[in-house]
Specification:
About 40% of the residues lie in helices and about 20% in strands. By secondary structure, it is an alpha/beta fold. The strands form 2 sheets. The protein has a 7-stranded parallel beta sheet with strand order 3-2-1-4-5-6-7, sandwiched between helices. Helix 2 packs across helix 17, helix 10 crosses helix 15 (about 330-340) and helix 13 packs across helix 16.
């Protein structure tokens, strides 16, 4: 393994501040992939000092003494506005010389003419502005306007980027995520987790939640309420993540009908044991830039139900049971089919395990490295 004469500064502030997000998975996975290349770049990691305190979350940096960390005292928000309004100081004041700057969110500094890459994860605030009335789009739009090149995490995201910003196609490369990553977690066996949340093997569906309304939990609750008393045995619905803010996820009479059947776990570092013992992942978001939980479920040997929109069919391929996320009856029918049809479920699991092998962080790193080389 050798180091190329290519120095890359990877913005990692947004990654370290959101360890239960796709940002973290993308940054940690890409970093591990790049460091594992036979010919890898010299890597510098840039973040605020506050984010630097969270570097222990990254299993990928273990034993990587050659990594160089560069920090700044200012809050990223303040530094971003300073760069946006005044264009000083250059990033080289913090990092020294480099060849490529790779931004993962919207912290876009002056770089004395060195190429700036922006990874665009999604454009949900443009596709569903009613969900984000308080969003401040200026920093992201400034980053888009100043970036020299873009990495989109799906063809869907690339299309959105072209639609909303009229970016030339040759300035955007698509690099897919690589699936689950190594995390620093306390190992918990499946039996312990099942007992903790009072669950029975293969007797629960699983979904992911966040503060974001696009996760579509009200329609999930409607769907489950329609089938909960028709299922052959007692089923529960496990929701991993943070509950949405300012949203009643139990519309109409669903709360009463689902009493005792909904389990909120909160954010979890290790989701694989719960995925492995579930009947299916029901991931029917209204919009996703990629949809990492699909790959996490497939890699765990779990059947997948997902939406027929945005990037989700692109990621799931033929390994997911597609539904209209706006139609609770359709979602419920798919859940019922998987619960009672073992042949259907087994077929989806087999296809999913095969599909998950199409994605890797090594592949993502090689494709990202090709973008770096192209720009210099």
């Amino acid at each position: 393994m050798g180091v190329l004469l290519l120095r890359v500064i990877l913005e990692i502030d947004s990654i370290l501040r959101q360890r239960h997000s796709g940002f973290f998975t993308y940054g940690a996975g890409l970093l591990e992939g790049l460091l594992g290349l036979e010919e890898r770049p010299e890597m510098g990691l840039f973040c605020s000092r506050r984010a630097f305190e969270n570097k222990h979350w990254l299993a990928q940096i273990e034993g990587q003494s050659q990594l160089r960390w560069h920090t700044c005292r200012m809050k990223p928000r303040h530094l971003g506005y300073w760069w946006q309004w005044f264009g000083i100081p250059s990033l080289q004041n913090y990092t020294g010389p480099f060849d490529i700057y790779h931004c993962n969110h919207h912290l876009m500094p002056p770089t004395k003419g060195k190429p700036r890459i922006l990874t665009v994860h999604d454009l949900r605030r443009y596709r569903y502005p009613e969900f984000y009335p308080q969003s401040k789009l200026g920093p992201f739009e400034n980053a888009v306007n100043k970036a020299d090149h873009f990495i989109a995490i799906s063809q869907s995201t690339k299309s959105d980027l072209q639609e909303y910003f009229d970016i030339a196609e040759e300035k955007i490369d698509v690099v897919y995520h690589g699936g689950p990553i190594r995390r620093i977690v306390e190992e918990t066996d499946e039996e312990t987790l099942l007992q903790k949340f009072d669950l029975q093997k293969q007797r629960y569906f699983i979904a992911f939640s966040s503060y974001d309304r696009r996760k579509n939990l009200p329609n999930l609750m409607r769907a489950f309420a329609q089938i909960v008393n028709k299922l052959p045995v007692r089923y529960q619905f496990v929701i991993i993540g943070s509950e949405p803010r300012h949203e009643d996820i139990f519309p109409g009479e669903t709360k009463a009908s689902l009493k005792g059947r909904i389990v909120f776990t909160g954010p979890l570092d290790n989701i694989t044991p719960l995925l492995r013992q579930s009947t299916a992942l029901v991931y029917v978001s209204l919009y996703e830039g990629f949809g990492l939980p699909l790959l996490e479920a497939m890699a765990a040997g779990t059947a997948v139900i997902t939406s027929n929109c945005s990037s989700l069919p692109e990621v799931a391929g033929e390994a997911g049971l597609m539904v209209d996320p706006h139609e609770p009856e359709e979602i419920g029918r798919a859940m019922m089919d998987i619960a009672v049809n073992e042949q259907l479920r087994a077929g989806l699991i087999e296809k999913g395990e095969k599909r998950a092998r199409d994605f890797s962080w090594q592949k993502a790193a090689k494709e990202t490295m090709a973008v770096y080389k192209k720009l210099i």
